[in-house]
Amino acid sequence: MIKTDILIIGAGPTGLFTVFEAGLLKLKCHLIDALPKPGGQCSEIYPKKPIYDIPAYPEILAGDLTKKLLEQSKQFEPGFTLGERAETIEKQGNGSFIVTTNKGTKHQAPVVAIAGGLGSFEPRKPVLKNISNFEDKGVAYMIKDPEVYRNKRVVIAGGGDSALDWSIFLSDVASEVTLIHRRNEFRGALDSVEKVQDLKNKGKINLITPAEVTALFGHNKLESIEVTKTGGIPQRIDTDAFIPLFGLSPKLGPIANWGLEIEKNAIKVNNALDYQTNIPGIFAIGDVNTYPGKLKLILCGFHEATLMCQAAYKIINPGKRLVLKYTTVSGVDGFDGSRKEAPKSVVKSID
Fold first, then answer.
1. Closest CA to 296 of 155, 116, 122
2. pTM listed for this prediction
3. Is the alpha carbon torsion for 160, 162, 163, 168 positive or negative?
4. Which domain holds residue 170?
5. How many CB atoms lie under 10 A from the CB of residue 193?
6. Which of 212, 236, 235 is nearest to 158 (CA)?
7. Pick from 188, 221, 246: which residue ends a domain?
8. CATH number at residue 103
9. Is the pLDDT of residue 235 over 70?
10. Structural Rg of the chain based on CA atoms
């Protein structure tokens, strides 16, 4: 039986940052993740994807963000159960929870924080009759290593942040980048939309809207695609790669059977207080939760993790009042990442 203060379901960015915030409060964490390594989607799906909205980083690759978060949390010595999926949860008489994985590993903690991102997921595929024939032969639904597309002709389809960001990034890698979207308006960040328009004006990106990819052609691999503009005549485009980035179809998996209040495949939480679910002691933070005004951004997950840890401290230490000062309080020793606990003058509990 693995025992800890906070059991975190999901070792993505939000889960990893929770370790740091909990560590400042002298709370130990253990993380469970079905993936074989920490980082969630950032390390498994798009480690080379640039992220632009992390404070202090004008741009950071998703994989590098994972490394920084692991470095930041390492001082608090978190435990990991990787390659296993959280399967069942049982509340004990003392108020704690026992979470058992699909491989039978048991974990016990007074607080459970579900930080599973979008849950288990699979890419949304365009409806093209022969698309499966070209999977891994020119068709891909995510980009793990952009160097695969070095000096190649690439067609990206989609209108969200991933499609925009990868089009921008690959404009300096591929020999030709074409972005296709079924609407003239994009769903992504305005800054990214402006960058794509600028790259189009400079001739570095071919932008075709409103249009859809309607057919794929090739023998042993993808050789060309058919693009049909709204109300127009289909045209052929030669390409080495077709990457439809239509997002992920998320599934909560076994967590959906834990008695939590679910809304549109997300866990409802009380955002006015501490991101606790309808079951006291179980929290949901990051993309896995929902509440009025929710934004699915990594930095929002960081904020939610911070407030959740404050509430967790009160559950784990009933009757103690927490005084948390800034981690930059003057007059204390340097907090340089080598320490295993926060300076005593930074975090203090009062009976």
1. 116
2. 0.65
3. positive
4. 125-246
5. 16
6. 212
7. 246
8. 3.50.50.60
9. yes
10. 23
One DSSP character per residue, 157-198 reads E-SSHHHHHHHHHHTTTSSEEEEE-SSSS-SS-HHHHHHHHH
pLDDT digits (tens, 9 = 90+) for 115-172: 976 555 567 899 998 999 999 999 998 887 889 999 999 999 999 888 998 999 999 9
239 and 331 housed in the same domain: no
- Residue whose token pair is 């998996």: 253
Do both 89 and 191 map to the same domain?
Answer: no
With the CA atoms of 341, 344, 348 and 351 taken in that order, what torsion angle do they form, in degrees rounded to the nearest 10?
Answer: 110
Query: Measured in whole angstroms, how far is the alpha carbon of residue 8 from the centre of its chain?
Result: 15
Residues 43 and 13: their CA atoms lie apart, in Å, by 10
Alpha carbons 304 and 275: distance in angstroms, whole number: 7
Alpha-carbon distance of 105 to 98, in angstroms, equals 10
Distances from the Cα of 135 to the Cα of 125, 167, 338, angstroms: 11, 20, 46
How many domains are there within the chain? 2
Q: How far apart are CA 87 and CA 9, in angstroms?
A: 10
Q: What is the C-alpha separation between 194 and 107, in angstroms, rounded?
A: 48
Both 13 and 114 in one domain: the answer is yes
Domain boundary among the residues 246, 268, 290 is at 246
**Is 108:97 a contact under the CB 8 Å cutoff?**
yes
What would the pLDDT profile of 166-210 be if each residue is shown by its tens digit? 999 999 999 999 999 999 999 888 888 999 999 999 999 999 999
Least confident of 194-198, 239-243, 333-337: 333-337
Give residues with Cβ within 8 angstroms of 193, minimum separation 6.
164, 186
Question: In angstroms, rounded to a whole number, what is the distance separating the alpha carbons of residues 294 and 292?
Answer: 6
- Assigned token pair, 127: 């409806």
**pLDDT tens digits, residue range 302-331?**
999 999 999 999 999 998 887 665 565 433
Q: Residue 210, preceding bond cis, omega within 30 degrees?
A: yes
